[in-house]
Amino acid sequence: MQPIKNIIFDLGGVFMNLDYKKTEQAFIDLGVVNFPELFTQHHSSPLFADMETGRISNQAFYDGLRKLSGINMSNDDIQHAWNAMLLDFPMERIVWLNEIKKKYNIYLFSNTNQIHYDAFIETVKQQTGITDFNQYFIKAYYSHELGLRKPDTASFQKIMEEQKLNPAETLFIDDTLSNVQAAAEIGLQTLHLKPPITVLELQL
Questions:
Q1: Whether the bond into 46 is cis, omega within 30 of 0
Q2: Which CA distances in Å does 76 have to 82, 188, 195?
Q3: CATH of the structural domain 20-83, one choice from 1.10.8.640, 3.30.2010.10, 3.90.550.10, 1.10.150.240
Q4: Which CATH class name applies to 6-17+88-201?
Q5: pLDDT tens sequence across 153-171
Q6: How far is CA 70 from the centre of its chain?
Q7: What's the rounded Cα separation, in Å, for the pair 105 and 185?
Q8: What is the pLDDT of residues 5-44, one digit of tens each?
Q9: Strand, coil or helix: 155
């Protein structure tokens, strides 16, 4: 195993705390009782995949979810429920990240969407005072901008090629096993971050 020179971090469940059940419950409260069949941490319907790869607009997502669920929810209701999973952003993880970037070339790769991204940036600003979270990374990759999402191996390959990284010298850290497995398939070193372990406990 080669020494690590580069680290690619996931965002949710690694730096920002998430609770998918909060979004599930928020939609159930709105009448979307089959929401768990549409979206979880581990699978999603094509509507959510299209949103996370930037193929559709926020409005198309709202309209699509109303059609898919048969429930006449307002845009604001959908946005609030969709963002319910986004919790806090512990400042101590930023402090930790500042130390790690002194030792490695660090990158971010997150499956996300424009609605979550806008909410996340605002949460970071409110909780930490940081106005540009992306500055901590050589480059931050977001699936809705990249046009590809995890666990598609093509998403990792695109980042590797663009940054000219050697997979054998690159560690990928994610809290979702399927994403970790996909990264390993193309030769990255991997670490599956399983709760309650956080980055603060990692020896890197």
A1: no
A2: 10, 40, 31
A3: 1.10.150.240
A4: alpha beta
A5: 999 999 999 999 999 999 9
A6: 28
A7: 21
A8: 999 999 999 999 999 999 999 999 999 999 998 887 777 8
A9: helix
